Here is the input.
Amino acid sequence: MSEILTQLDQLLEARKAESADSSYVASLYAKGLDQILKKLGEEAIETVMAAKDGDKDHLIYEVTDLWFHSLVLLAHQNLSSADVLKELQRRFGLSGLAEKAQREQ
Here is the structure.
């Protein structure tokens, strides 16, 4: 499953060198952080609305868009899905309450 994330990371990194006219992702990079954040926010809202509608296929579609645009943001910030997976691994087996308490220290 993480193979697709690795492939996406590589693709998103490659898009940084492409013309904004040739790639949607390259055009987001060219417009900068504010546009990427705006798109991420839109996708988050659409995900919430799809969940409220109760249509599971639509929810999966919107979560996919949200994840994809999150990966775009990470790549823009010179991060990758591996960084997120490493953090998830660190938190695995740790109760949410304990993890939150660690952040508050």
In short: The chain has a mean pLDDT of 93. The two ends are 34 Å apart (CA to CA).
